[in-house]
Design brief:
heterodimer, A: 15 strands, elongated, B: alpha+beta, D-amino Acid Aminotransferase, Chain A, domain 1, 2 domains, four-stranded antiparallel beta sheet, globular, manganese (chain B), ATP-binding (chain B), Alpha-L-glutamate ligase-like protein (chain B), ATP binding (chain B)
C-alpha cells in the first residue's frame, strides 16, 4: 500500500492556499467577509471663488493627499475652464489647475471628492526630506528666539521630543518672557515651524479639514508636520495638541499654498461635506479598480459572464452537500448529482414554487410515461419521447399560470429537462418493479437532498463567499478529497447496525 | 421504527464493517478494476466458471440484438421453465422467471401469464441497458430454471433460496442464506424484503436471522423457525466459493450459489460489492475475520487448505 502522506500534504496545501487567498482578499483588498456590510464615506465639495479681472486666469488648487483616506471618485466642474490635474512628484503635491483665457466677474469652481477612511492614520515619508535652511530671525527677535530654542533643546533628545517640548512651551500656562515676546509678532504655527527649522529639523505647514456631517462653508485648519525617523508627526501649536483625529482629512501637504489664483482677486475656498454609507463590497471594488488591482477577480468579466459564474460557482457548494449527505450521513439519492441540478433550478424558481412545479411535472410525466410503456418502445426513443413530453408539460404549465396571472409559474422553465426526463424514466421503472411506495420514498429523498442543497446554496453569505473569495473553492476541494478518504461509519449505519452493537 | 442511534465506538468494538470502509479499504484495494468484467458481466462469469469446472445453471441462449428476441420461443421449446436476466444487471433487477411453459404460453411463479408483448418489451429493455450498471447496452441471458432442492421447503416463499458467502482473499469468512418472502416478491435480495439467515462457516447451520435489517425468529410467511436450517453440501459450497477467488482474482468477493435438486450446488453469480447486511444476519461484525486473513500475510494455501483453515478458525464457536 502506498503512503498517504503526499495526499495529506496536498490536502493541507489546498486548504492553506484557499484560506490564505481568502484572508488576503479580505484584509488586503478589503472585500468584506459578510455581505451587506456598510462603510462610511464622505462626500466633500470644495468651492473656489474669485473675482475675475477680465484677464487670462489660472487657478491652482491643492487636492487632498492623505494616507488615512482613500479617494474613490473625484471630479471637478467648471464650465468654460480648461482643467488638468497635476501629479508633480506624486508624493504630497497633487493640484488641480483651472485655466481660462478671460475671466470676468464672480467665478465659481467646484471640486468634488468621495473618500473613505482607510484606518491607517500614520503618514510615512518615502524619502528622507533634506534638512531645511536655518531660518533667519529678525534682529529684534534673534536673541529671544535662540535662548528659547536652547531652553527647549536642552530638555529634549530627538526631533520628536524637541517638537513635543516646544509645543508644550508655546502653550504653557506660564510662558517664558522670550516666548511671549516671540508670539507677539508671530503666529504659533509660524513660530513653531521657525524654531524647528532653526535646529535643522524638517517640518512643514499643512492644512487639514475636519469632517463633520452636513457642515457647510468650512475652512481648512493649519497644522505643522514634523519629521522624525521616517514618519511625519502632526502638531497643532495653536492649542498644544499632537496627533490627529480620525475625522481630520489632510488636504494639503505640499507646504505651499492651498490656493493660487493668477488673474483674479478676492479668491477664497470653502468646503461642505456630507457623510454617507455605502456597500463595503462596492467600495472595495471601486478601490481595486482605481488601483488596477483586480488581479484575480471575476469582476473583470463582462456582466453577463459574471452572473453566469454566480450560478456556476454555487455548484461546488451543492456537490459538497451531496458528498456530505452520502458519505457522512448515508442518504441515498436517485441519480448522484440530480439533486444539485434541481437545487440550481430552485434558486431561480424559489423553493415552494420549485417543489410544486417539480412534483407536478414528474407526476404528469409519470402518467404519460405509463402509456408509453405499453407501446413497446426502445429505451432511447422512449426517453426522447419523455423529453419532448416534458417540454410540452412545461409549456402548458407556463401558459396556464400566465393566463391565470401566476407569475411564479413562469419560472418553471428553469428546470433541466433532460434531468427531469431521466428522473421520470427511473421513477417509472421503480414504480413497476418496487411499487409506488418506493417511488415516493426515493423521490422524496432526492427532493429532501435538493432542498438541503438549495438552502445551502441560497444563503446570501454563501453566495457572497463563493463569488468574492475564490480561495474558498480550494477549501471545498480539500474537504471533498478528505471525505473521499473517510472510512468511519455513516450516520445512518449507526441505526442500521444497532442490533449488532449488543446489549 | 427504530429511530435511536448507537455509538460508533460500540460498532467498532464489535468489528462492524461500514460502507465507507468497505468501499475504500476492501473493494478499492482488493478488487482490481480490470477484473470487474469477470464479475459484473454474468455471461463472462459463466464462461469462466465452466472453464474452471464450477457448475452453473444451464445456458439456453443469449439474445444480443433486438431482432433475436423473436427467437426466444424457439429456444425455450424444450424447457419447462426458464429465466431471462440482464448480463450486467445489478441488485436482482430485470430478472424474469418463467416457471411454467404451456403450449407456448408463459407463466410467472405467482401464476400470472406473461404475454408475448410483455416478454418482448422486457428483453428490449434489457438490451437497451435499463437494468445494467451505468445504463450501458447489455445482452439478455436465457438460463434453465433451477429445480431447487426441497431441503429448504417451507423456508422460502415462491423464490429460490440462495447462499451468499463472503470470500476474502480466497477464504470464505462469512455466510448467509437468503430466503425470499411475500414482501420481497419472490426475490432473494435483502433490501427488497428477503430474509437473511446467518450460517456458521464451520458447520453450515443457521445462527440468526434478519428481515429489513431487524432480527426475526420465524419465516414471516411460513412461520418456520429460521435458525433450525442446516445447509447441505456445505463443504462443496465452501470449495466452490473459494475457487471463485482464483477464477475472478477479486480479493473481496460475494458468491451467490443455489442448490439444484439434480445438479447440486450451482454458482449463480459473483458480486464485487457484496452488501453489509450479512453482518446483521450473523449478528457479528466481519472485520475480525478480515483482519485474521490479513494477518496471514503471503501464503501459498490451496483451495482445500483454505477451506479447512476457514472451517477451523472462522466457525461460530472459534474466536477469529
Amino acid at each position: 500500500m502506498h503512503s498517504k502522506k503526499p495526499f495529506y500534504i496536498l490536502v493541507a496545501l489546498l486548504f492553506i492556499l484557499g484560506i490564505t487567498a481568502s484572508v488576503y482578499r479580505g484584509v488586503e483588498h478589503k472585500v468584506p467577509f459578510l455581505p451587506g456590510k456598510q462603510v462610511q464615506s464622505w462626500a466633500v465639495d470644495a468651492k473656489v471663488q474669485f473675482q475675475g479681472t477680465g484677464d487670462p486666469a489660472e487657478v491652482s488648487f491643492s487636492l487632498p493627499n492623505d494616507p488615512a483616506f482613500e479617494i474613490l471618485v473625484e471630479n471637478a466642474t467648471s464650465p468654460g475652464y480648461g482643467l488638468s490635474i497635476t501629479d508633480t512628484n506624486e508624493q504630497a503635491d497633487r493640484r488641480a489647475i483651472w485655466s481660462v483665457r478671460s475671466a470676468q466677474g464672480q467665478q465659481d469652481l467646484y471640486y468634488k471628492v468621495t473618500i473613505i477612511p482607510t484606518g491607517s492614520t500614520k503618514v510615512m515619508a518615502s524619502t528622507e526630506p533634506s534638512a531645511p535652511k536655518p531660518y533667519i530671525w529678525p534682529a529684534t527677535e534673534q536673541a529671544a528666539a535662540e535662548q528659547a530654542t536652547q531652553d527647549v533643546w536642552a530638555k529634549s533628545a530627538t526631533n520628536l521630543s524637541f517638537a513635543q517640548q516646544l509645543n508644550k512651551a508655546l502653550n504653557a500656562q506660564e510662558r517664558s518672557q522670550n516666548i511671549e515676546l516671540l508670539l507677539s509678532s508671530n503666529s504659533p504655527n509660524k513660530l513653531f515651524l521657525h524654531m524647528l527649522q532653526s535646529k535643522g529639523i524638517p517640518a512643514q505647514e499643512v492644512s487639514g479639514l475636519f469632517l463633520e456631517d452636513q457642515r457647510r462653508r468650512q475652512q481648512l485648519s493649519p497644522f505643522v508636520e514634523v519629521y522624525d525617523k521616517g514618519e511625519w508627526h502632526l502638531f497643532d501649536p495653536t492649542n498644544g495638541t499632537q496627533g490627529r483625529d480620525d475625522n481630520l482629512l489632510l488636504w494639503d501637504r505640499s507646504g505651499k499654498s492651498v490656493l493660487d489664483v493668477i488673474g483674479g482677486v478676492n479668491s477664497q475656498v470653502n468646503f461642505s461635506m456630507l457623510q454617507d454609507t455605502r456597500s463595503a463590497l462596492a467600495t472595495s471594488l471601486d478601490v481595486m479598480n482605481n488601483q488596477d488591482a483586480l488581479d484575480f477577480s471575476l469582476y473583470q468579466l463582462p456582466l453577463e459572464e459574471q452572473s453566469l459564474f454566480k450560478g456556476i460557482l454555487l455548484i461546488p457548494i451543492g456537490v459538497l452537500m451531496v458528498v456530505f449527505l452520502r458519505v457522512i450521513v448515508g442518504l441515498k439519492t436517485s441519480g448522484t448529482f440530480m439533486p444539485v441540478l434541481i437545487a440550481l433550478a430552485f434558486i431561480q424558481t424559489t423553493l415552494l414554487t420549485g417543489l410544486i412545479g417539480f412534483i407536478l411535472i414528474v407526476a404528469c410525466g409519470l402518467m404519460i410515461r405509463s402509456y408509453l410503456s405499453d407501446l413497446n418502445l426502445l429505451l432511447i426513443s422512449r426517453i426522447s419521447a419523455v423529453i419532448i413530453v416534458v417540454i410540452g408539460i412545461i409549456g402548458v404549465f407556463t401558459l396556464i399560470s400566465y393566463k391565470i396571472g401566476l407569475s411564479e409559474g413562469l419560472t418553471i422553465t428553469f428546470f433541466p429537462m433532460i434531468i427531469l426526463a431521466w428522473t421520470i424514466e427511473r421513477m417509472s421503472i421503480l414504480w413497476e418493479e418496487e411499487g409506488p411506495k418506493e417511488v415516493v420514498l426515493q423521490g422524496g429523498g432526492s427532493l429532501f437532498v435538493a432542498t438541503l442543497a438549495y438552502l445551502a446554496m441560497s444563503a446570501t453569505w454563501v453566495q457572497h463567499w463563493v463569488f468574492n473569495f475564490l480561495g474558498i473553492h480550494l477549501v471545498i476541494l480539500a474537504v471533498v478529497l478528505l471525505m473521499g478518504q473517510y472510512t468511519g461509519y455513516r450516520l445512518l449505519e449507526l441505526r442500521r447496525f444497532k442490533p449488532l452493537a449488543g446489549e | 421504527m427504530r429511530l435511536s442511534f448507537t455509538k460508533p465506538s460500540a460498532l467498532r468494538n464489535k468489528g462492524v464493517l461500514g460502507m465507507n470502509k468497505r468501499n475504500i479499504d476492501y473493494i478499492g484495494r482488493c478488487n482490481p478494476r480490470k477484473f470487474y468484467k469477470r464479475v459484473d458481466d454474468k455471461l463472462t462469469t459463466k464462461e469462466l466458471a465452466l472453464a474452471n469446472n464450477i457448475a452453473v445453471p444451464a445456458l439456453i441462449g443469449v439474445v444480443r440484438e433486438q431482432h433475436e428476441i423473436e427467437e426466444i420461443p424457439a429456444m425455450v421449446l424444450e424447457e419447462d421453465g426458464f429465466v431471462i436476466k440482464p448480463s450486467k444487471g445489478s441488485g436482482g433487477k430485470g430478472i424474469l422467471v418463467i416457471t411454467k411453459v404451456e403450449e407456448g404460453r408463459y407463466y410467472k411463479p405467482n401464476g400470472q401469464e406473461v404475454g408475448p408483448s410483455e416478454m418482448y418489451r422486457h428483453v428490449s429493455n434489457v438490451l437497451s441497458g435499463l437494468f445494467s450498471l451505468g445504463g450501458s447496452p447489455d445482452v439478455a441471458i436465457v438460463e434453465g430454471l433451477i429445480q431447487f432442492d426441497p431441503v429448504f421447503d417451507g423456508y422460502s416463499y415462491e423464490g429460490v433460496p440462495d447462499i451468499r458467502l463472503i470470500v476474502y482473499k480466497g477464504f470464505p469468512v462469512m455466510g448467509m442464506l437468503r430466503l425470499s418472502t411475500a414482501a420481497s416478491d419472490g426475490k432473494a435480495n435483502l433490501h427488497q424484503g428477503a430474509v437473511g439467515v446467518g450460517v456458521d462457516i464451520g458447520t453450515g447451520k443457521g445462527l440468526h436471522a434478519v428481515q429489513f435489517d431487524t432480527p426475526v425468529e420465524l419465516h414471516p410467511d411460513t412461520n418456520k423457525k429460521l435458525t433450525d436450517i442446516e445447509v447441505p453440501h456445505w463443504d462443496f459450497l465452501l470449495h466452490t466459493a473459494s475457487k471463485a477467488y482464483e477464477m475472478s482474482e477479486m480479493g473481496y468477493l460475494g458468491t451467490d450459489m443455489v442448490l439444484d435438486k439434480v445438479k447440486g450446488p450451482l454458482l449463480l453469480e459473483l458480486n464485487a460489492r457484496p452488501g453489509l447486511a450479512i453482518q446483521i444476519a450473523n449478528n457479528r461484525g466481519i472485520l475480525p475475520y478480515l483482519d485474521h486473513v490479513d494477518s496471514l500475510g503471503n501464503h501459498n494455501m490451496t483451495v482445500d487448505e483454505r477451506v479447512e483453515y476457514a472451517k477451523k478458525h472462522f466457525a461460530h464457536s472459534a474466536q477469529p
